[in-house]
Fold this protein.
Amino acid sequence: MNMQQAAARADNILDNLLKDVEPQVKWTHGPTTTGSCDVTRRRAVMTIVSAERRGNFLGLVDRSWRKSGYRMKSVNNDPEVPAMFAQTKDGFGVSLIVGGEGQVFFEVDTPCVEESEVAESTTRATAPTYEGQEHIPRPNIRSPFWSVGAP
């Protein structure tokens, strides 16, 4: 497997995870980074996930990962900035981190593979892409379910 193939596998992992989230959330691509033999793909959830719904969201992701056969590596139960880390059977690291203002970030790190060029993801984001901006803004899309109780 080369870095492009590993990046495509990481996209597939993220695509499948986000399909499991019901009701659907809107997301955008985060930066893709490459090392000497690995790739990291990122997605940022732009739907506001309120503190009241955060537990539901984390539980849904946990069940999705376990259903997919991922091995849970660690869980940070901090009420403000929880995080979950897992690994696929083929060695891809999968993480969910809740950042500032409750924004959810997903990341997939590939194992070390054969060096190659890596193209941007071909998966179409469901929220604006914020191209040309230095940073992805905080979540700004309301959901009748996920945003309940949020200001």
